[in-house]
Amino acid sequence: MEEADLLNQTTSMKYIWLRGLSANQKVQMTVFALFLTSYVLTPIGNILIVITIIYDRRLHTSMYFFLSTLSFIDVCHSTVTVPKMLRDTWSEEKLISFDACVTQMFFLHLFACTEIFLLTVMAYNRYVAVCKPLRYMTVMNWKVCVLLAVALWTGGTIHSISLTSLTIKLPHCGPDEIDSFFRDVPQVIKLACTVTHIIEILIVTNSGLIFVVCFVVLVVSHAVILVSLRQQISEGRRKALSTCAAHLTIVTLFLGHCIFIYSHPYTSLLEDKVVSVFFTTVTPLRNPIIYTLRNEDTKNALNKFMERLEGRAKK
């Protein structure tokens, strides 16, 4: 059959089989415990951050508006993959319908790309707060924050639609097995029964351009911040450095995974699985841990919120 005829075919594959992480029962139990712990703690921690920010009026600033958005995205991000992985851990037939696979890929890239844009916006917000403190409330007013939020969600949606559309247009007529524990564009592309080099280049270019632009903005903004901090008093410098360190930690963990997965040929590697496990289970927990433990304002607001809840419970 000619390649042109293949491209005109509709997707004939109805289900995709997953190999998972391991066939070893002990490994599966460990994986299940890891996934379950993550999925329980991630919503609790991130939702607690959102409620605390809403509760304390002193945290009603652009910085904490974006932080609450980040927490919301992390809850959604983990929900896209972890519940299915929990079920598959104990299932002998780890399969998913092709339509559900495409849906999962769409939302996975929607939340991932939106988070990258959000981290970049948060870096710009920190730059304005440190380098232009007198103009901060004017530059980062609520109207600007809402517009930036709309822009980053729109950008994430466009990115996700473009990657998903490139994938589903390919003729998928077998093989129907993925050597992974969740569905992503690189793995699904390998199931196509046609040459995919051009599609792979387009996807790497699309994702790579986003990573590079965001990375440059992040590096430049933090470099300017560090230079500006040399002129500030010690207390203000310490607080700003703590916030920047927390943000850089999150950016490193998140972008590090994206760069690793999309910067090498689309092959099935054990390292890919390990990095993906970290990305899907550990990374969404970073906000409650990193931002809460390193941010005095958030810790104080959280303590007051918990004390108020305890007071109500005693009554």
UniProtKB/TrEMBL annotation:
Cited Gene3D superfamilies: Rhodopsin 7-helix transmembrane proteins
InterPro entries with a match to the protein in the record: GPCR_Rhodpsn, GPCR_Rhodpsn_7TM, Olfact_rcpt, Olfactory_Receptors
Membrane topology, as annotated: Multi-pass membrane protein
Pfam families: 7tm_4
Keywords, sorted A to Z: Cell membrane, G-protein coupled receptor, Membrane, Olfaction, Receptor, Sensory transduction, Transducer, Transmembrane, Transmembrane helix
Ranges in coiled-coil conformation: none
Sequence ranges assigned to domain G-protein coupled receptors family 1 profile in this UniProt record: 45-291
Localization terms from the record: Cell membrane; Membrane
GO molecular function, one term: G protein-coupled receptor activity
One GO location term (cellular component): plasma membrane
Similarity comment: family membership: Belongs to the G-protein coupled receptor 1 family.
Entry function: Putative odorant or sperm cell receptor.
Stated name of the protein: Olfactory receptor
Organism of provenance: Ailuropoda melanoleuca (Giant panda)
Gene name linked to the record: LOC117800735
